[in-house]
Automatic annotation (TrEMBL):
This protein's encoding gene: rsmC
PROSITE patterns xref list: N6_MTASE
Protein name in the entry: Ribosomal RNA small subunit methyltransferase C
Matches recorded under InterPro entries: DNA_methylase_N6_adenine_CS (IPR002052), Mtase_sm_N (IPR013675), rRNA_ssu_MeTfrase_C (IPR023543), RsmC/RlmG (IPR046977), SAM-dependent_MTases_sf (IPR029063), Small_mtfrase_dom (IPR007848)
HAMAP family: 16SrRNA_methyltr_C
Keyword S-adenosyl-L-methionine on entry: yes
Main location: cytoplasm
Amino acid sequence: MSAETPPCQLLERQSETYRDWLWVAPPHDAWLNTVGGSVWSADAAICHAWRARGRPVHAELAPTLTAPVPGAVLFWPKTHALGEWWLLALCAALPEGTPLQVVGEHQGGVKRVLKSLAALGLGCRKVDNARRCTLYATRTAPLSLSPDAAWTTFEAAGLNVASHPGVFGHGKLDDGTRLLLETLPGALGDPAGRHLLDMGSGDGILAAWLGIRGASVSAVDSNAFAVAATRRTLEANRVAGNVWQSDVFGDVTGPFDAIVSNPPFHQERAVDYGPAARLIREAPDKLVRGGSLILVANAFLPYPRVLADTFGDVTTLADDRRFRVYRAIKR
């Protein structure tokens, strides 16, 4: 099986066999199935795919790696600060001197890895360069910085919000979420006592806002960093709620009186409508009769058609030219 993504195509041409290596934050690429090893990923879909193949999976943000690994490959993310977190986390989790390779695309900022490694006091050499990607090699070492230093907080909508690199809207309130929060009072009425789901919870601001107003809240995200951020946000605002990781509705039961969402449409740099389309098409099975799906999206996204095809009717509750808030009701 040949590699499909440019970073894996670069790895495929190396002399290293990568047998039993640890793959960190990898993309979906069938070539990885052929080389063995284990995965450490914050992405629920990636973890599910590896588990389905019977491969070792580490989904925690601070896993205990009981089996030694001969080396690790970090796929550099588009968010530079998240890449630096992975470097800190790998140095904390792996024995000193473990071979560590970092691979990524040039347009994703992988060339900045050199400065990051130098700032951490880690040596580095360039191994290869092709397919508009570069592969670097270093080794893990004890570091004075902790991965926990990446966590920050900010205030928005009267709430204390936890934030981490790689979580949507990191460090600030997204304008689409702001419009959704402004629209929810009219869209939901009094949420007290109602069972509501924040799908794609991100930093948890929607779940906290609903919980403060008396709703019984559940929150789900496919990203482990977002799940941790949501839990921290609920705790900071003294809101009780259930929070867990799921690939859209894969591990969600329900039913709910309403589902609210600011769904993502990017996978790294690529536009990907798939998760949002799944959210819309599967939402009726998770709603009580008369329950609502309320979501905000960039105005150019083709969600009204999917909503209409799924629910029959869709109402635009707000439109500021950049974002629109839609409501669809299960009849």
